[in-house]
Amino acid sequence: MSEARRYDIDWIRVIAIGLLLIYHVAIAFQPWGVMIGFPTNKEAWTGLWIPMTMLNIWRIPLLFFVSGMGVYFALKSRTLKELYAERSLRIFVPYVFGMFVIVPIHTYLWRYYFNMQLIYTPSAGHLWFLGNIFIYVLVLTPLFMYMKTTTWVKKVFGHPAGVLIVIGAFVLEQVIIKPVPYELYANTWHGFVLGMLAFFFGFCFVLAGATMLKGRWIFATIAIGLFVLRLNGFQQLLVVESQCWIFSVLGFGYKYLNRGSNALTYLAQAAYPVYILHMIFLYLGALLIFPLSMPVQLKFVTLLIFTLMGCMLTYEYVVRRIKWIRPLFGLRFTPTSSSTRDSKLQPSETGS
Which letter, b or e, does each residue of 101-123 get, where b requires 16 or more Cβ atoms within 10 Å of its Cβ? Predict the structure, then answer.
């Protein structure tokens, strides 16, 4: 099972990045958005935060899980040296480029929005995620290569009770680090350790052929129940809720998304550049849209469309077509045709 094509992993990654884009647009409509470096609309839409709260505890861990899964497929056709070289080009290069070019642009727009001094400020910004993954690849890949030669991983994580080990590890992380709030992942030890655990267990799941297919409804039911309790002030099982959301997404993804298409081929390539670019268009859209007189709900939809279209058009007509720009956004120098990619590449090799 673990050797089969896994289109669902690419689909989940695309969807997760789409949810991230929506989530960041939603922050611009929260009164506290300015405190974490977002332009904010004068009129808040606080009701929007209820569904965003549901997403907040699992959207980033899910991306780390998927990234770990991608390493398994990459190792099927690469040596350790080849993987390090490829990931350096496709993760570290965009990370450095983004730190010195992409992030300063949207930081400039943020300063302009709030009439602050316009200065050049290099920073990892929203690309902190890439820096973490690059470290995980360097540190964990030798262990992964050893694990592929053993049988205990398949026995442990191929068993239904294996999820209890995963949940236990994340609970232990919370107990030891005591993150406040739990959702603060960027540039924290909590985010680094949590991401490494998710990256590690993502690899283990694919190696063991664990798809969460049979338990998907159970995990979804538990997650929904714990979310309702959390909305009513019961936060003690937040980590369990987070993992149940992730397991249910993996299970439903394997059930309904494990099939290829031209749309997936395109979106899987576009997702990484969109992730890198989206803050520029979000901040630019805020500058143009927030001064307008219109209902806050319409502003949200307009900003979301502006951000998405700006990213996709830039990808299609700039990033995708200009050879020397492609590596700066994690793409190969030359495009790969749909048929070639479908026959030769494994899921989640694009981007991170």
Answer: ebbbbbbbbbbebeeeeeeeeeb
